[in-house]
Structures are given as structure tokens and as C-alpha cells.
Write a structure and sequence with these properties.
The complex is a heterodimer of chains A (about 110) and B (about 110).
Chain A: E1 4-7, E2 10-14, E3 19-25, E4 29-37, E5 43-50, E6 55-58, E7 61-66, E8 71-76, E9 85-93, E10 100-101, E11 105-110
Parallel strand pairs in A: 2-11
Antiparallel strand pairs in A: 1-3, 3-8, 4-5, 4-9, 6-7, 7-8, 9-10, 9-11
Chain B: E1 4-7, E2 10-13, E3 19-25, E4 31-37, E5 43-51, E6 54-57, E7 64-66, E8 76-78, E9 87-94, E10 103-104, E11 108-112
Parallel strand pairs in B: 2-11
Antiparallel strand pairs in B: 1-3, 3-8, 4-5, 4-9, 5-6, 7-8, 9-10, 9-11
The chains are: A mainly beta (about 110), B mainly beta (about 110).
Chain lengths: ~110, ~110
């Protein structure tokens, strides 16, 4: 079963705007990660946030984690056309050694 | 350069045939994973392995088999028992399970004719 669920399923914005994607999950986790996938390619790791962290930044990316609500958000600021891709959250549940992904958010940034 | 390599990139199969997808990594990672991705969908876990000669079923293992005879290699066989094998298959590895980011290959696209 998929652990994470992203919303929205699709998001279309203009270049320069911010994009926010959300992820909800079901069980307690060790870490939550965000990945990016260009069409037909493998996934690329963006950022990892541990269960005892609440916020993390990396360049134009900002991730928040609310373990009480079992949810996370990914904010991409000042978006660019090159940010067009699918974004997935992934979690590894406590006591498990696997990694499960959500269905993803398809982001389109129009130039 | 270190990385994870999947082959072939595209594969066509007739119904009733088994096919094996290759996944090799030179990152010295202990843990390796196979995922299946259908169009517009997320990734579903097929099998994973934390160490050589050991592997566990994921959520959709039926119709698939794996082996982990070497640390570097984690091949996936799609058997004729898999009823709907047409999909994009992704292999990933990480240093140790639950320790950090997954490194992905570029995927293998399997089409059953």
C-alpha cells in the first residue's frame, strides 16, 4: 500500500510564482523525503527531513513536517520552467526497512 | 563515476515469456529496491534487499522474483505469472535501509505485446 498521498495531483503556475505541494501519510515514520522525477526518468532526491525536525531549507526548497498531523509540505519559491516535473514524497515507517512513495504531484511551470 | 545502472532501457516481451531486468550499482550500498510505476501513478514496491542473499517482498511481489547474490547486483525477473507486466520499472539503492536518500537508476520500460 502507498504510505504517502500528495495533493494536489496536478498544479500549474506561472514562472516566478511559488508552488506548494502537500503530503499526508498513515503511520509513524523515521524520515520523510521528497523526490523529483522528470518524465520517463529516474527519481532524484531533493531533501530529507527527520521525524524530530519541523522545517528544513535547501536553496529554493522549504519542507515542513507536522508529525501530529502526519503531513508534510514542499514549497518551491520563485519557480522556473525547469522546475516542471512530478514531485513525490516518500516515507520509511518505524520498524520497517522499506521506503514507500505517494502518487505524486505533477507541477507545470509556464514561462 | 559512481551510480546505479539499469538495463535494458526498453524491452518488449511476448505474453508467456519471462524477462529479467538488470540493476547494478557501484556505490557500495547495502540496500536495494525495485519499484513499479504505471502511467501517471506513484511508485509501488515490488521487492527490496537489505543485504546480500536476503530479500523481502514488497506490496506487489506476485509474479516477480529477485536474487541478491552479489552486493552490486539485484536483478528482477518478471515471470509469465505477472498478469499485467507492462510498466516502467525503477531500481534504487541506499547505503543502509532507513538511513537516507535513495539513488535511482534511469528505469526500464517493459511492454508486453
Amino acid at each position: 500500500s502507498q504510505q504517502g498521498e500528495e495533493d494536489p495531483q496536478a498544479l500549474s503556475i506561472q514562472e516566478g510564482e511559488n508552488a506548494t505541494m502537500n503530503c499526508s501519510y498513515k503511520t509513524s515514520i523515521n524520515n520523510l523525503q521528497w523526490y523529483r522525477q522528470n518524465s520517463g526518468r529516474g527519481l532524484v532526491h531533493l531533501i530529507l527531513i527527520r521525524s524530530n525536525e519541523r522545517e528544513k531549507h535547501s536553496g529554493r526548497l522549504r519542507v515542513t513536517l507536522d508529525t501530529s498531523k502526519k503531513s508534510s509540505s514542499l514549497l518551491i519559491t520563485a519557480s522556473r520552467a525547469a522546475d516542471t516535473a512530478s514531485y513525490f514524497c516518500a516515507t520509511d515507517a518505524l520498524g520497517n526497512n522499506d521506503m514507500r512513495f505517494g502518487a505524486g504531484t505533477r507541477l507545470t511551470v509556464k514561462p | 563515476d559512481g551510480g546505479i545502472t539499469q538495463s535494458p532501457k526498453y524491452l518488449f516481451r511476448k505474453e508467456g515469456q519471462n524477462v529479467t531486468l538488470s540493476c547494478e550499482q557501484n556505490l557500495n550500498h547495502d540496500a536495494m529496491y525495485w519499484y513499479r510505476q504505471d502511467p501517471g501513478q506513484g511508485l509501488r514496491l515490488i521487492y527490496y534487499s537489505q543485504i546480500v542473499n536476503d530479500f523481502q517482498k514488497g506490496d506487489i511481489a506476485e509474479g516477480y522474483s529477485v536474487s541478491r547474490e552479489k552486493k552490486e547486483s539485484f536483478p528482477l525477473t518478471v515471470t509469465s505469472a505477472q498478469k499485467n507486466p507492462t510498466a516502467f520499472y525503477l531500481c534504487a539503492s541506499t547505503r543502509q535501509a532507513n538511513t537516507g536518500e535513495l539513488f535511482f537508476g534511469e528505469g526500464s520500460r517493459l511492454t508486453v505485446l
